[in-house]
TrEMBL record:
Annotated gene: Wscd1
Residue ranges of every copy of the WSC domain listed in the record: 142-234, 245-342
Originating organism: Alca torda
GO function term, MF aspect, one: sulfotransferase activity
The name this protein goes by in its record: WSCD1 protein
A Pfam family recorded for this sequence: WSC
Recorded family membership: Belongs to the WSCD family.
Length: 577
């Protein structure tokens, strides 16, 4: 009896172990299957919307799939759209492209865009961190450490140029940036901010008060709270070319009283461009003005705005400054020094009563417009998204909650009734869709400042991208025209060509006042740090004829909608090609 009981007990133990093993195997298999399905969904999302998901536009039809549903229910002949173009007729719509399908499709596109933005931003973070680890070991401090100094933002001594990098700032990076612009001193604060100048701060502080570690270099000190770690970088300048970053601005009529117009001057018998530029750089002025043997330094002002250039022949001997135009005209050069009259920015001291959007399709110049608005008004702009790369470069409103109302306006690429009606008013920035699509594709594959490779353009991603995003360009504008409460429409091309008038219009819309000199400062720093660098392909045409036909129909629809709301139509360069 005991022997039989023992055998039964042994069998039950084996069965228990077997059941445990089978349960564990079942759970593990289920987990693997779930992970595999999740990965498949992510991969499908990362490939973008496929061609058969794109908003369709039948051949010969203007605006099908993006027009107002009320218009779709009652098709009628379209009025003349662009000057010199024939009127187009809209045939009846297929049931598949009706209003209900349109609303559902636009909702799907918005969800796809949101997932794509958050995925893109999160992907950028590890890439930036990895690149940073590689550079921290090669950085060497070539300048001479001077000491720790007090930093007063209201009376800052090192104000010749200002740079931010909240992820990659190192001592060498700051020194090189200041040396490139011909400054003598480089100061670092808060572990991430770099300031340049030619004079030391007045108040020295205790060495231990500079205790902030550099964001991109462990073990190195980059100032502290209201404290600057200052380095002398003249050793770096010795190996640099003296005329580096000196840009010829043109020939201009000299003001009547040069000494009143320009704060600093120098008279030299054998004056050269290098001598004048070096003198003005040491005085921390962005303009070097040469008239004969005279060198003047200053800023663009109302007296000397650099808007009315003269014929270059009137400045005789542009290569030989000593013979410039018998006193009536002068040569103007841009020194490496940054114009800092408009670089100070802060958050609003009280919450804004009007919630303003800065809305655009991706790739339409929203970041550039934010740069202009921030420098013109002196207040940060916010963002519906968080882009770490922009925050690291000084757009501090990126980390502020987009509904905090502490920023002058909020960047958004969203469309749709709910998203639009959250805002009281909006600046709607529109850019040529051909340029916008290329800019956004470049950003997707090479970041804010790079260019996509030939391999990217020739891949299946590009046609899928155009099919999905071209309809978004049109529906974005149409939705804001329909649901926006108070709109200011700005065309990117007009802003680029007539910067000060258009920027003044934007500032007034934001209920702000700004001086003429500050606007001239913004114009002098118009590109900021967000102009694409690198080799740009010349005479590159990525659009097939089928793509052009698709986008052209969207252009006609948007132009008609703008004119229907009494806004200026699209610029002539948008005319279908």
């Amino acid at each position: 009896m005991a022997k039989a009981f023992f055998r039964l007990q042994k069998f039950l133990r084996r069965t228990q172990f077997l059941l445990f093993f089978l349960t564990a195997a079942y759970l593990m298999a289920g987990s693997l299957l779930l992970l595999q399905r999740t990965r498949l969904v992510i991969q499908q999302g990362s490939r973008g919307t496929s061609a058969n998901q794109a908003l369709p536009v039948p051949e010969g039809m203007a605006g099908v799939g993006i027009a107002d549903p009320r218009t779709l229910q009652n098709p009628r002949p379209s009025p003349r759209l662009l000057v010199g173009m024939d009127a187009m007729q809209e045939p009846a719509l297929d049931q598949r492209h009706g209003p209900r399908w349109l609303v559902s499709r636009n909702s799907e596109l918005r969800q796809l865009r949101r997932r794509w933005f958050h995925r893109f931003i999160s992907d950028q973070e590890p890439m930036q961190t990895a690149g940073f680890k590689a550079m921290k070991h090669t950085a060497e401090h070539q300048g001479t450490y001077v000491g720790c100094f007090s930093d007063d933002s209201r009376e800052r001594t090192l104000k010749g140029a200002v740079f931010y990098d909240l992820r990659k700032m190192t001592v060498s990076h700051c020194q090189e940036a200041c040396a490139e612009r011909a400054y003598t001193y480089a100061g670092l604060a808060y572990g991430a901010e770099c300031y340049c100048g030619n004079a030391l701060p007045a108040t020295a502080s205790k060495p231990e008060e500079c205790n902030s570690e550099c964001k991109g270099e462990k073990g190195s000190v980059c100032g502290g709270v209201n404290r600057l770690s200052v380095y002398r970088v003249e050793e770096l300048r010795a190996g640099a070319r003296r005329r580096r970053n000196v840009i010829y601005r043109g020939c201009f009529r000299a003001p009547e009283n040069l000494t009143d117009t320009f704060p600093a001057s120098l008279i030299q018998p054998n004056l050269t461009v290098e001598m004048c530029s070096e003198f003005c750089s040491k005085k921390e002025f962005p303009l070097a003005v040469i008239r004969g043997r005279e060198c003047y330094c200053g800023f663009p002002t109302g007296r000397f705005s650099l808007h009315d250039g003269a014929d270059g022949q009137l400045c005789s001997g542009t290569r030989n400054a000593s013979s410039a135009a018998q006193g009536k005209y002068c040569l103007v050069y841009q020194t490496p020094v940054q114009d800092t009259r408009c670089t100070d920015r802060k958050f609003l001291t009280t919450k804004s009563k009007v919630f303003v959007a800065l809305s655009s399709f991706p790739g339409a110049g929203n970041t550039w417009a934010r740069h202009l608005i921030e420098h013109a008004t002196g207040y940060y702009t916010g963002s519906y998204y968080f882009d770490g790369a922009l925050y690291n470069k000084g757009f501090k409103g990126e980390k502020d909650h987009w509904r905090s109302r502490r920023t002058i306006c909020v960047k958004t690429h969203e469309s749709g009734k709910t998203e639009i009606e959250m805002f009281d008013s909006a600046i709607l920035l529109i850019r040529n869709p051909f340029k916008s699509l290329m800019a956004e594709f470049n950003r997707k594959y090479a970041g804010h400042l790079g260019y996509a490779t030939d391999r990217n353009w020739k891949s299946k991603e590009w046609p899928d991208f155009v099919n999905s995003y071209a309809s978004w360009w049109a529906s974005h504008v149409l939705d804001w025209l329909r649901y926006g409460k108070r709109l200011l429409v700005i065309h990117y091309e007009d802003l680029k060509q007539n910067l000060i008038p258009k920027l003044r219009e934007m500032v007034e819309f934001l209920n702000m006042t700004v001086t003429e000199d500050r606007l001239l400062c913004v114009e002098n720093n118009r590109d900021g740090n967000f102009k694409r660098s690198g080799a740009k392909q010349k005479d590159f045409e990525p659009f097939t004829q089928e793509m052009k036909d698709l986008i052209n129909r969207y252009i006609l629809t948007v132009d008609e909608a703008l004119r229907g709301r009494n806004f200026t139509g699209l610029p002539r360069e948008y005319v279908p090609r």
